[in-house]
Known about the structure:
By secondary structure, this protein is mainly β. The protein contains no helices and 7 strands. The strands form 2 sheets. Strands 1, 2, 3, 6 and 7 form a 5-stranded antiparallel beta sheet that branches. A two-stranded antiparallel sheet has the order 4-5.
Amino acid sequence: DRSGAVSVNASSIVPTIRVEVPGLATVAVDVGMVNISGLDEFSLFKLLVPNASAAERHSLHSTATFASFAASLDVRVNVTPAGEKLHGSSLVEDFRLAVKAKAT
Length: 104
C-alpha cells in the first residue's frame, strides 16, 4: 500500500505499565492502536549519520523532514483501588493522544 500511513496494534508490542500507589491503588496503562500518516511526503531522510562534532563523534543521528505528519496513540488507563483508604470499582478511561504537524 502506498498510502504513506501505518497502523499498528501496539498492545502485543508494548507491555502494560503498572504503577503501585501503596495503600491506595494500582494504575495500569495500556497502549492500543498507533496510527502514523504523512510518511510518503518527506523531503529529507538521513539515517544513522555520524556526528560531525569531535565531542560527539561516537554517536549517530537520523533526520527526516515531512511536509505533513500525523500520529495518534490509543491509551487505556485503569485505576484499581487497593488497600483500606480507597474503596469502589475500578476507573477505566480510554482516550486518544493525537499530534499533527505541517511544514510552513
